[in-house]
Write a structure and sequence with these properties.
With 513 residues, the chain is an alpha+beta fold. The chain is built from 20 helices and 12 strands. A 5-stranded mixed β-sheet has the order 1-2-3-5-4. It has a 3-stranded mixed β-sheet with strand order 6-8-7, with helices on one face. Strands 9-10 form a two-stranded antiparallel sheet. Helix 17 packs across helix 18 and helix 17 runs antiparallel to helix 20.
Length: 513
């Protein structure tokens, strides 16, 4: 191991063009040197020869004073210090090293904070102890460094390592989210408070009616994202289920119940957790061969993965972590595991509602229509899903089955336990912001104007509610003008002067919408 060279001078690396010729260090350098079976991190670290320090979306460039010595331990220290913890990396690296080699690493600086983190991570990830005596003194250090990644506030102390385990998850499911300028702005913007302050000025009746509409709107949007156009009855049924989000504890039984609500006709698929492989993608039209965009977790791993997922969900919703970050880890983690043959996408979006409601982010009494915002950003949504799924395809070995499904041949569970959810969190925050700033206010403003118009028509014409609703629909569809067909049929009792007055009143009330 000591003979390995880790620093690598690059200008192009794995298809990425470096901003300048520089030394690759940290996780990227170790993955390349040890040929670990994992995708490269979204952001790689370079040491500039020009004494410059800057960041881009895919590169973090440091000055020569940051360059580590060319040893595994020093590159690990650099990675932990500047890139944060990458659980998938550490799991694959530990599997690639002997216990003796791991001991050699942590004994370079046996009491150092980075050695203690590596030691803890080995015993936590591998679930076995090294032959090292417990530490008897020293300050406790957090595993996740607060300025780099989001962890739980109340971590568990490990006296053996003098480490506080503040990982936001369990050993069987623990996505991580890096702190970015964008995420920090969102976290400190207190979007939930903005929503509460905006809604407090409206009557309970308006909020209840808005909630009913937004519930149905969000249900239809969730189906539309899947390329489906459900019957109204089916959309209403799923909308009612979403309206109960956050009220019931998540469990395997609850997930099965949700799938049954999503799937109207189970004649052509097996309900329940998969007992075979699964993928998202297309089939070759001539051969039927699978063309995956995403390969689901192996069905043999589902019991343990879902158990870990549920334990982490319970840990996080009780934590003080930002609710949108928790919703990201749980909802995207579920859809990547893809435990069901069908219904995964809609349940994934339900889980966003579930977490935001359970952690009191959503205003009580009003649905949070995040699926509608996702539908408006459908291309970005697919892109952010693919940012995790597509790179993994190079590391999942599979063969085609007789029924043109996939049978995964290698061990893949870790790819679904430990993933970087940073991009997904940024995307979800964008959707939450659009929901709070645009979608909810737009619906409430519409209902407020509708009520004002309705009162005016009731006072002057004593028209029943059902007919007023129809009148508004016709006027909306025809830019504030009542069509000849409507005037000759449903509204034949109105004379020309009355029609003109109604049209003027409609444009006065609804003009800016």
């Amino acid at each position: 191991m000591n003979n390995n060279h880790f620093s690598l001078f690059v200008n192009v690396f794995h298809g990425r063009i470096a901003p300048e010729e520089a030394w690759l260090v940290g996780y990227g350098a170790i993955i390349e040197a040890l040929q670990l079976e994992i995708p490269m991190p979204q952001k790689l670290s370079l040491i500039s020869m020009k004494k410059r320090q800057y960041q881009s979306e895919t590169w973090a460039v440091y000055t020569s004073r940051h360059k580590p010595e060319d040893s595994l331990y020093k590159h690990l220290v650099f990675a932990l210090k500047y890139e944060g913890i990458n659980l998938l990396f550490f799991k694959k690296m530990f599997e690639n090293l002997s216990d003796a080699e791991v001991l050699e690493i942590i004994q370079v600086e046996p009491l150092g904070q980075y050695s203690r983190r590596i030691w803890f991570l080995y015993e936590w990830l591998m679930q076995k102890p090294l032959e090292v005596e417990n530490l008897k003194s020293g300050n406790f250090i957090p595993l996740i460094e607060n300025h780099l990644q989001y962890g739980v506030i109340q971590g568990l102390r490990s006296p053996r390592h003098r480490v506080i385990n503040n990982l936001p998850g369990t050993v069987d499911f623990c996505p991580l989210i890096s702190k970015t300028e964008k995420l920090e702005q969102y976290v400190h913007a207190n979007l939930a408070d903005k929503q509460t302050k905006y809604l407090k000025d409206f009557s309970k009746d308006i909020l209840q009616r808005a909630s009913s509409f937004l519930l149905l709107k969000d249900s239809k949007a969730s189906f539309s994202i899947e390329g489906e156009s459900p019957k109204s009855k089916r959309a209403v049924r799923w909308g009612q289920a979403m309206g109960q989000a956050g009220l019931r504890d998540l469990s395997k039984e609850e997930l099965l119940r949700l799938q049954q609500l999503v799937i109207e006709n189970p004649r052509f698929l097996e309900l329940g957790f998969r007992t075979k492989g699964g993928f998202v993608g297309e089939h070759d039209r001539s051969t039927g061969e699978p063309i995956p965009d995403h390969i689901s977790a192996k069905w043999e791993d589902l019991d343990r993965l879902i158990s870990g997922f549920l334990e982490t969900e319970k840990l996080l919703w009780k934590s003080e972590m930002n609710p949108v970050l928790v919703a990201t880890a749980i909802a995207f983690g579920f859809v990547f595991i893809h435990p069901f043959e069908d219904g995964n996408g809609r349940i994934h979006r339900y889980l966003i509602h579930h977490i935001l409601s359970r952690m009191n982010f959503s205003h009580q009494g009003i649905i949070f229509p995040v699926s509608a915002a996702i539908l408006d950003k459908i291309h970005e949504y697919r892109k952010v899903l693919e940012s995790h799924s597509l790179p993994l395809l190079d590391f999942i070995q599979w063969q085609e089955t007789k029924d043109h499904n996939v049978n995964v041949l290698n061990q893949t569970a870790d790819y679904y336990k430990y993933f970087d959810a940073t991009k997904h969190a940024e995307f979800l925050f964008e959707c939450v912001e659009v929901t709070i700033v645009e979608i909810i206010p737009r619906e409430i403003e519409y209902l407020t104007k509708y009520d004002a118009f309705k009162r005016s028509i009731e006072d002057d014409y004593e028209m029943p509610d059902k007919l007023i609703s129809l009148l508004v629909n016709f006027l909306e569809q025809n830019n504030g003008v009542l069509s000849r067909r409507a005037r000759e049929n449903e509204f034949a009792n109105l004379n020309d002067r009355e029609v003109q007055e109604i049209e003027i009143e409609f444009r006065r009330v609804f003009g800016d919408l």
